[in-house]
Amino acid sequence: MATISLWLRLFEAPVATFRQVVFSFLCLGARRSICGLLGGLFLLVGCPAFASAAPPDTEVFLDSPFRFKQANQKRVSMEYKSQGNLLVIPVYLNGKGPYNFLLDTGIATSVITNPKLGRHLGVQTTKSYSVSGVGKKAPVLAHRTNSVRVEFAGIEAPSMHFIVVSKQVVAFEALMGIQIHGILGFDLFRSFIVSIHPTQGQITFTDPTAPRPATDESWSSLPIELDDSRPYITTNIAVTGSQAIPLRLMLDTGAGHALSLEMGSDSRLTLPVERQRADLGYGFSGLIQGYLGPIALLQLGSYQLRSLQTAFPDPHNLVDRVTVARSGTLGFDVLRRFDFIIDYPHNRLLLRPTSEHRHQFEQAAL
User: Fold this and answer.
1) What is the reported pLDDT for 149?
2) How far apart are CA 206 and CA 223, in angstroms?
3) What are the Cα distances from residue 41, in Å, to 38, 62, 76, 229?
4) How many whole angstroms separate alpha carbon 184 and alpha carbon 89?
5) So what's the pLDDT on residue 314?
6) With b meaning 16 or more CB within 10 Å and e meaning fewer, what string describes 94-122?
7) Which is it for the CA torsion 126, 128, 133, 139, positive or negative?
8) In this predicted model, what pLDDT tens digit does every residue of 157-207 receive, in sequence order?
9) CB atoms within 10 A of CB 59
10) Cα 113 vs. chain centroid, distance in angstroms?
11) What CA–CA distance (Å, rounded) separates 131 from 141?
12) Chain segment 294-327, per-residue pLDDT in tens
């Protein structure tokens, strides 16, 4: 039975209210990729086209698990729920449902988080894994499912594989007010160009081979690099003063916070002068502590956001968790201030401030 490390955080900060649920599956031992353990579960992991700065050939995405039900359809829009600063959509599994699923760019494979759902569906499982977190608590058993049919809003995945945990590891209903049954990750986002409009509560899925969504000068574009099936952007951040440094951040729609920076990831990264000690949340290992404080500047393309409340977890909370080099995560509490387009097929993130948040941003000449 293989062993997987599952890192779970729930941030609930007293100063900047945010909640984060992050699932990062990392292998124990010689830092081998989980892709090596799960075989074909993570499709296209490490594919050179994903890492290339140039737009990849769209044929790379033809074997994506999700597709439109109607052969000639190019675009589908639907409403989503924003619960606890997270994206939730109704999903049908094997013709049953609807079930509430989070949309999370921060996970490499999709997860059924409610073990009762797996039993209710009668889903057959194949391989078993021991899922453990950072710390000394007992591991949780998890299984890889056989083929599951997934459907929502005119979209389908005829044959999906999930990881199913054997017991509930997060009290989603208590935290978010609704029951959460699972999480959709890389397999969904790599299948479409995904446009999210927070003011309208609407999400649009577009065929990567269709004409790209129209944009004007109000949109700013940032390159996305896909690494280990997760999206990364490099952006300028100034913690104090005016000296900005380029930092690599994971783009994480499954993180309810604004920004989290990891001390020790860059020698130039310092704590803000105005900060307070805080309990940032709880993981499998127990309490996660660190600091909260405003940074001077976050630049996203041509837009600048100042005095952004940011989390700084203690470095020992992060030991052996991250296998891909990064300096932090950009969460949904920043992204919700924009209309934004996550475009894996063309390696780009497009941003345009919403009308209600436009006053928070300065537009800088690049």
Assistant:
1) 96
2) 19
3) 6, 16, 26, 11
4) 10
5) 87
6) eeebebbbbbbbbbbbbbbbbbebbeebe
7) positive
8) 999 999 898 877 677 777 778 899 999 999 999 999 999 999 999 999 999
9) 9
10) 15
11) 6
12) 999 999 999 999 999 999 988 876 554 556 789 9
Residue with tokens 């996203």: 300
Considering only CA atoms, which of 248, 245, 257 is closest in space to residue 324? 248
Largest Cα span, the chain? 57
Amino acid (1-letter code) at residue 73: Q
Side-chain half-sphere exposure of 49, counting CA atoms within 13 A: 13
Secondary structure letter of residue 246 according to DSSP:
E
Contact of 329 with 253, CB cutoff 8 Å: no
DSSP string for 255-311: B-SSEEE-TTSSTT----SS-EEEEEEEETTEEEEEEEEEEEEEEETTEEEEEEEEE
CA distance 335 to 345: 20
**What is the CA angle 48-252-104, rounded to 5?**
90
d(CA 123, CA 114): 13
SS3 content of the chain, % helix, strand, coil (to 5): 15, 45, 45
Q: Is the peptide bond before 98 cis (omega within 30 degrees of 0)?
A: yes
Q: Which residues pair with 96 in a beta bridge?
A: 93
Q: Which pLDDT value is given to residue 242?
A: 73
Question: For residue 318, what pLDDT is reported?
Answer: 59
CA dihedral 93, 232, 198, 216 (to 10 degrees): -120
User: Domains of the chain by range and CATH?
Assistant: 67-205 (2.40.70.10), 219-353 (2.40.70.10)
Residues 5 and 25 sit within 8 Å (Cβ to Cβ): yes
Determine the length of the chain.
366
Mean pLDDT, rounded, for 87-94: 97
* Angstrom distance (rounded) from CA 144 to CA 29: 20
Residues 6+ apart with CB under 8 A from 221: 215, 301, 348, 349, 350, 351
d(CA 141, CA 132): 9
